[in-house]
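Exercise 7. Given the components listed, write out the predicted structure of the assembled complex. Treat all entries as one system.
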Amino acid sequence: MSCLTVDNLTLKIAERTLCQSLNLKIQTGENWGILGKNGTGKTTLLHTLAGIPLAGTTVNSHASIKLNNIPIEKIKASKLARQLGILLQDFQDVFPSTVLETALIGRHPHLKAWQWPDHEDIRMVNNLLEKMGLAGYQQRDITSLSGGERRRLGLATLLAQQTDILLLDEPVNHLDIAHQHQLLHYLTTPLFKQQHAIAMVMHDINLAKQYCDHILFIYDDGRTLAGKTKEIVTAKNLTDVYGYPITELTANAQSVFIAK
Amino acid sequence: MLKTHSSYWLIATLFVFVIISLLIALLIGSSPLSLTDLLVHFFNEQSSTQQLIIQLRLERALSAFVTGGLLALAGTLMQVLIRNPLADPYILGISGGASVAALLAILIGLPLIALTISAFAGALFAMLLVFLLSRGVKNTHWNPTRLLLTGVILAAGWGAVISFILTFSPNDRIHSMLFWLMGDLSYSHFPGMGLIILLTGLFFSLLLSHSLNVLIRGEQFARSLGVVTDNLQWKLLILASLCTAAAVTQAGSIGFIGLVVPHLIRLIGIHDHRILLPASVLCGGGLLMLADTLSRSLFSPVQIPVGIVTALVGIPIFLYLLQRSEAYR
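Answer.
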């Protein structure tokens, strides 16, 4: 059972307040969706929660971010990387590397300086690649992958890190509709949820509503609203958050939010 | 990162390559020797012309090996540090500082030892300048883009100073100045200091090598995997700069080795820095020994700067491998 607790967090970037006095508790079994307009600080928040704040971010002095009741800044970087992992928004692939090698980098925090991945590591990574629909891609060079394939490789790399807490910055970005649902379905299967606490930045309201049990709204004036998906994901709240009229449609016993 | 038997084979093959390059360097030249000559005279106590030749060639070959190894090591580290495949040991202007100091020494007519010291001091000064300026006045946060821009601009500045010195130098000095700028091993002595810096540099780089595998994929990514990147990048900058300074002091600014060798090894499929770093050192050292042998024997008795040979041989090999590679398609 892991728990990431945020108390009284105010984030600023270049004098601009991104979120004001945020309180949040993300625990194993929960799947949080973070929604908000562009530039409201969703990525900045995720990086700060991961203990790797972006350059120029300032955090108020009374704030505390704790992982299982220990302030994250007190946890050694290599130890933190075994407990908490983050999927970044994009990748810098300048140098060649195969798909298998790249996914194995996820094992880095678990290996000593002169330790090479063993058969167990390779078996696990191959398994994850298969789950992400990348079976048979092991020897491909990463620069030859499409955007969606690269994204799924990023997820396989993150899952190879085997952390209890997963912070995902737009996990379904670049993915086609089938892969979007396959991935989110995988992340929300009971067995997976039992072992992980997840927070993901999303842009698709309907996917967030379908797969996340909790939602954090970030407004562009720094206010935040956190709660259960069923209670707070309403057309009115969404209209407020995005500053654009959004309405709910119901058809075949399914409801979807669309822009008016 | 996989450890496969091919990694061991690569290192073993490169060792053989280095030995063969050394033999070629010893045997070929304006007065060729046979393998029996070499064996007979190498272990013969009495001094003879052949023995003298062997000794001179051995010193020069060792000097070439150390310089090539230093350049390849510095190039590999610099490419990770700046995360740019075009980075080479000279990109931050360290060789520019060394060159200015060396040209001034040639201009004044200082003896070789003073030229060497002067070049090393110039390299260290240029390195310090990059450190201080890229760190910024109040900002202590690491920023590779600022480092790169600072270095490139300083390198351009050094280039201007070099041209200025060349413009005002008397004709009889220009020749040795140009040789120094192109990179030349003909005045090399036993590379004691260079060897020490190469070995310690390789040792400390190997200590960092596991983290380099992650850093090369991006700074944020490396941090997310528990690598303390600020610390690591300062160490990299210092290691790469010192190796560059030592190489330039040894033989002037020899091009292409530092840029091309790390890519050659990557193109074979080695991406793990725990193998890539030592393999680059061996490959760079061996290649420069061969290139130097060519530079002194191709147009014998005229010797051409080895930098010309590294360019003429390095470019086609590199282009050929690039055409075949999947990663850069």
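Discussion: Residues 3-91+162-259 of chain A form a domain with the Rossmann fold fold (CATH 3.40.50.300). Chain A has one domain: 3-91+162-259.
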